[in-house]
Design a protein that fits this description.
Strand content: 5-15%
Helix content: 40-55%
Radius of gyration: 19 Å
Number of helices: 10
Largest sheet: 3 strands, antiparallel
Shape: globular
């Protein structure tokens, strides 16, 4: 997961798609759904958790994270991409510097004590919050790939942590906001990259700023207008970090689907990320 590190101030002036002329407000001032109304709204909205749509979501994220639609090949992926988060690895980019890789390896150790990655737990605890490789080099990347290639329990642990930390919260929040499949995916992709913390670049802050400009369907708003506001705020957050400054995963992918009115994320889908063309039939 790419948790944001800097804490920049929000620039003045409207974004390029001002769908509602409203000043950004605190989330506390936005009408919230009561538990009963949230549950009712969630029950009315299905989408990304449908198995076929979830498969599409995995492919879309993989196209942006790994330049490939073969997301299952990414269990063994590991490298330091130079973004200040240490090693990035696995199906959603678990990072040694942001805690989610540590949580994953701890889960794997509980399920399979004595596995090849368990000896790295002390080092993963020490490097959490930094970009350090101390105690991980030189063998950790090879052992990660070995675990992914040889042990289905490790692959299952990656799936379970992906769903617990990223996918399930994104889908749940999207349904509570009354969003259909595309909106739920926009939330998921944002949580994968930015995390769900409280800093200005996190998913929660992106959503808060979007709510200050447009209402989601669960609050009686227009879904397309709200999603444009959300994607505008997502692009702003991405541009605050050099490692994420290429916004094509939004501009020539999610925004394209939105402009086409494909709110259910139905194939065929055609999009570009980093200049590469992708297609799902």
């Amino acid at each position: 997961m790419r948790h944001p590190i800097p804490d920049p101030a929000r620039p003045e002036g409207p974004s390029r798609r001002t769908v509602l002329a409203m000043a950004c407000v605190s989330l506390a001032t936005v009408p919230l759904l009561t538990p009963s109304r949230a549950s009712a709204a969630s029950a009315r909205v299905t989408g990304l958790d449908d198995p076929a749509k979830k498969e599409i979501a995995m492919q879309l994220v993989s196209s942006a994270e790994n330049s490939s639609l073969d997301w299952k090949a990414q269990y063994r992926y590991i490298e330091d991409i130079g973004d200040g988060r240490g090693y990035t690895a696995g199906v959603v980019g678990f990072c040694s510097g942001t805690g989610d890789m540590l949580d994953l390896v701890e889960l794997y150790a509980r399920r399979n004590p004595g596995n090849v990655l368990a000896p790295y737990l002390p080092a993963l605890r020490r490097v959490d919050g930094s970009d350090s490789h101390e105690g991980l080099d030189p063998a950790f990347p090879d052992d990660w790939r070995r675990a992914a290639d040889e042990d289905p329990q490790f692959r299952r642990a990656q799936d379970d942590e992906r769903d617990r930390v990223y996918f399930d919260p994104a889908v749940r929040r999207g349904k509570e906001d009354g969003l259909r499949t595309l909106g739920q995916f926009a939330y998921y992709d944002a949580i994968v990259m930015h995390g769900d913390g409280g800093d200005p670049l996190s998913f929660g802050s992106i959503r808060e700023r979007a709510l200050g400009r447009a209402r989601p369907p669960a609050q009686g708003g227009d879904e397309v207008a709200y999603l444009h506001a959300f994607l505008d705020e997502r692009v702003w957050a991405m541009r605050q970090e050099e490692a994420h400054s290429d916004t094509s995963r939004v501009d020539t992918a999610q925004r394209v689907f939105l402009d086409e009115g494909n709110l259910d994320l139905d194939p065929p889908l055609d999009w570009y990320v980093y200049g590469d063309r992708y297609h799902i039939g």
